[in-house]
């Protein structure tokens, strides 16, 4: 009794199931790769500026939200003590009790005093020119005035 086993061959060519003529052309040409790279570059050139513009807007929104939260903490300080912290005491009075303030019930912030989204301190003056206090950030450029992302973000 003999067992008949068919002979199998192992092909080392890149695509054995394709005809011989097509096997030679089974890759991408340099021209095809360049066209794809140009298309990707055009898409990145169109989408990139719109994406980075949104990042700048989010930093401004973050600064506005932080100024609002600091304003609420300042209002709570005033309710407890009867006045806003003096300019000399600054915003640090929200977390650290001033030596001459017996009615201080803080800390008024859950975390440490935040810096603006551009890693600069918020500016505080009391009494302010626009109200009981003025609280602001100079924006991205860190200078008074400016436009767009560099504009001052204020509490008034």
Automatic annotation (TrEMBL):
Keywords: Cell inner membrane, Cell membrane, Membrane, Methylation, Transmembrane, Transmembrane helix. The keyword RNA-binding does not apply. The keyword Transmembrane applies. The chain crosses the membrane at residues 26-47. It comes from the Bacteria. Its main location: membrane. One of its GO terms (cellular component) is type II protein secretion system complex. It is a single-pass membrane protein. Residues 51-156 form the Type II secretion system protein GspG C-terminal domain. It is found in: Cell inner membrane. One of its GO terms (biological process) is protein secretion by the type II secretion system. Belongs to the GSP G family. This is Type II secretion system core protein G. It comes from Methylobacillus rhizosphaerae. The lineage of its organism: Bacteria, Pseudomonadati, Pseudomonadota, Betaproteobacteria, Nitrosomonadales.
């Amino acid at each position: 009794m003999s067992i008949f086993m068919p002979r199998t061959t192992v092909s080392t060519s890149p695509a054995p199931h394709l005809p011989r003529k097509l096997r030679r052309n089974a890759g991408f040409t340099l021209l095809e790769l360049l066209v794809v790279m140009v298309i990707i570059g055009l898409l990145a050139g169109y989408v990139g500026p719109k994406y980075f513009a949104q990042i700048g807007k989010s930093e401004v929104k973050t600064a506005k939200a932080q100024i609002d939260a600091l304003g609420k903490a300042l209002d709570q300080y005033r309710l407890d003590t009867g006045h806003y912290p003096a300019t000399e005491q600054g915003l640090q009075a929200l977390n650290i009790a001033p030596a001459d303030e017996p009615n201080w019930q803080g800390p008024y912030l859950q975390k440490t005093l935040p810096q603006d989204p551009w890693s600069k301190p918020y500016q505080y003056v009391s009494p302010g020119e626009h109200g009981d206090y003025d609280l602001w950030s100079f924006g991205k450029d860190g200078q008074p005035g400016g436009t767009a992302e560099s504009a001052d973000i204020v509490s008034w």
